[in-house]
Amino acid sequence: MRKIIVAIDGYSSCGKSTMAKALAEYAGYRYVDTGAMYRATALAGLRKGIITDDEIDEEKLKVMIENLKIDFAIVEGKQHTTLDGEDVESEIRTLEVGNAASRVSAIGFVRVKLVELQQRMGDEKGIVMDGRDIGTVVFPKAELKIFVTAAAEIRAKRRFDELKAKGKEMKMDEVLADVIDRDYRDTHRKESPLKQAVDARILDNSELTREEQFETIKGWFNEARR
């Protein structure tokens, strides 16, 4: 069967990365978490003081991003994000970095730079990539496009449980407010807003188990690569 590109888009805390990793493992494809790339960029900006709660110094960010080295490495059997060779997988998963990533991703030159890198990663196909604009901007001709959604309250509960498991203390209403705020920013930004590609298959996993959603996307994948 032919190699294809799988583009998975959708709202935050929908489990896109989990299903993308599982599909990549099943297919023997490379998995690329584009959200992690924006988070790594945001982390670098936060560390250097280029990104603060009040503003982003875009001139300094433009210089910084030209020299960033963002990649992925396998650590104890799991894929981790690296920033200039440092494993930052845990650090990029905080709410602070997530919010900064959402702001950074709305900046045009940041998206241009990371989209170029993402497209190079898919030159030989055989790739599963998830994010916000994969099926609409990065790979508009992907053979399989999936758009993932779920109710905001369910996504907030998933995020709350994830943070709690990591020992991070947050209030449920704060997490829900953050999810709703990120949804608004992602769908209303000027640069590559989150939206469903016209030819994407919709997966609402509000009430689905991981096993059920994997069986669904596995079927779509096998159909698409014939």
Walk me through this protein's architecture:
By secondary structure, the chain is of the alpha/beta class. 49% of the residues lie in helices and 17% in strands. The protein is built from 9 helices and 8 strands. The chain has helices spanning 16-27, 34-47, 58-66, 95-104, 108-121, 134-138, 152-165, 172-188, 210-224; strands spanning 5-10, 30-33, 70-75, 78-83, 86-87, 127-131, 144-149, 201-204. Strands 2-6-1-7-8 form a 5-stranded parallel β-sheet. Helix 1 packs across helix 9 (210-224) and helix 4 (95-104) runs parallel beside helix 8 (172-188). The chain is globular and about 50 Å long. The mean pLDDT is 94.
What's the topology here?
Elements: E1 5-10, H1 16-27, E2 30-33, H2 34-47, H3 58-66, E3 70-75, E4 78-83, E5 86-87, H4 95-104, H5 108-121, E6 127-131, H6 134-138, E7 144-149, H7 152-165, H8 172-188, E8 201-204, H9 210-224
Parallel strand pairs: 1-6, 1-7, 2-6, 7-8
Antiparallel strand pairs: 3-4, 4-5
Helix pairs in contact: 1-9, 2-4, 4-8, 7-8
